[in-house]
Amino acid sequence: MFSRDSVAHRLFRSAERWLEVRELTGTNDHPMITVSMNLCGLDGDMGYPWCASVQAEIHHVAEVEAPKSARVMDWFVRKVVWEKQHGEIPPFEKRGMVGGLYYRSLGRLGHIFLIVGEDKNNFYTMEGNTNIAGSREGDGFYKKVRSKESVATLADYCLEENLFGEKYKKYLKGRI
């Protein structure tokens, strides 16, 4: 059994491999993007959005059990520890969690990121298919700053299933 911090550290090391990845022609194309899409069962040459598939690849390489899915919504079915409708984000450790952004225009979650740190108002993240401005349809993998106010949900894949409920039961209040 690994500590939550050691699992988060493995995720960060895995994510750092992506920091120089930029799409080659602006059509969701790069050899690493293709690998991440293939891991999710998709043809990596089809130009699909890749913010979730990169998280699948990062978690896979770090040997952290997580969805092998390129669909953001699939990441927030299990192991969800907080959703915006439940009020303020609780004061538990968030490094290593994934966060989701909700897009009214889509009517659903539409972007995912890995949390590497936080301050009072922001999460420091590593995320794919974004850009300097923070778009959900960007050109590469970047370190970003996301306001906590913009986040719709958090999920924690750093803990094994049997430890998850025990760790978060006082925050989840019967929702697990």
Give keywords.
alpha+beta; 26% helix; endopeptidase fold (from Nostoc punctiforme); single chain; 6 strands; 4 helices; 176 residues
Architecture blueprint of SSEs:
Layout (H helix, E strand, L loop, with lengths): L3 H13 L14 H9 L11 H11 L18 E4 L14 E6 L4 E11 L3 E9 L9 E8 L3 E5 L5 H12 L4
Antiparallel strand pairs: 1-6, 2-3, 2-6, 3-4, 4-5
Helix pairs in contact: 1-3, 2-3
Q: What does this protein look like?
A:
- This protein is of the alpha+beta class and 176 residues long.
- It has one domain: Alpha-Beta Complex (endopeptidase fold (from Nostoc punctiforme)).
- 26% of the residues lie in helices and 24% in strands.
- The chain contains four helices and six strands; from the N terminus they run H-H-H-E-E-E-E-E-E-H.
- It has a six-stranded antiparallel sheet with strand order 1-6-2-3-4-5.
- The chain is globular.
